[in-house]
Every structure is written in C-alpha cells, then in structure tokens.
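One such given next:

>
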Amino acid sequence: MSTQNLTRADFEPTVTGGGIVLVDFWASWCGPCRQFAPVYEAASEQHPDIVFGKVDTEAEQELAAAADITSIPTLMAFRDGVLVFAQPGALPASALNDVIRAVRDLDMDDVRAQLATA
C-alpha cells in the first residue's frame, strides 16, 4: 500500500480508527523531508497492514499547528487511536523499522492503563 495524503478533513478519522497509522509531516522545500520520503514510501510497501499518511505542512498549516509540529519532518505513530510515538527528524530505514516493530509490540491495555493514571 502506498502513502496517502491526509488533510484536515480526513486526519482525525484516519488516526482514530483501529490499527496502526503512521503520519509523516513534511514540506516540499524541506531537504530532510525529501530524503525521508523514499524511505517512508518503501516502508509503506513492506507493511501493507499499516496506514502510511502524509501531511503537507504548507497546504495544511492549521492541521500542523493543531498537531504542535515545530520541526519537519516529524513522524507520528498512532495505534488504535492512541498517539504512541512522535519524533522530529528524518529516520533511516532501520530506525523506521525499529519504530514499526516497537509500535506493533505495544501492549495497548497497558498503554491505556498508563494513560488513565497520567
């Protein structure tokens, strides 16, 4: 599955659905974003069970502001509607695979319990 562009209209329904959703916040003028794009696209082909979304921060400035994006690229990972990872910076393929593995391995009952006590 290839990446899909997310807008303010479809961002929330996408990330609050079930399963794993990765979101890359990027801009066309950003060099590190352009370097990360093929890594992200390749991962989307390797993991068809994960939704890979992209948010163009220039076109979706309100959405980027609502997500507190201060540096791009920023990668966010959601699992079962819960934000479980957010980090700025372009990742090499091995680090992106580590993030995907870690998100897959999460015990979501434990995550929800931790959130309830926070």
